Amino acid sequence: ELENEGLLQLHVEQNFDVENPNDYKRALKLALEARPATSPRRRIAGVKVYCDGSLGSESAWISKPYPGGGTGLQLMDKKLITEILSECWGNNFPVAIHTLGDAAVLFVVDNALELKSKGIQGKLHLEHVELASPETIKKNRFPGRIFPLVPYPPP
pTM for the complete prediction? Predict the structure, then answer.
């Protein structure tokens, strides 16, 4: 209503997200249902899922063990990420994936590149990246990829 009356002064962009990547179909369903309400001031940004955790809790998925041991959490496997990317891109929705650790970033980039080689592609946002190897950053230089790095404050 506010938009129709010219009173909506802000722009809203929304990702539909789920904490458990296995529930991505719920987020995709909500995004599909919301798509008809898209307007110049309201936009569906896509679907967001989580591939790993955080550095502070040592749950970000990293390639080398934390000082206390372990390499964090891998919240999805190859089958699941392939399914998520294929279905979301097939419905013309970008996918945002929470990837803090270098192993999570490499896993997502490699799987997206594999799908691209099969003609399946779309926009991919790697969210909250804190660790990534120079090789992974170079691999990620292809159209449709958004790779915002999170600045880490000095001690």
Answer: 0.85
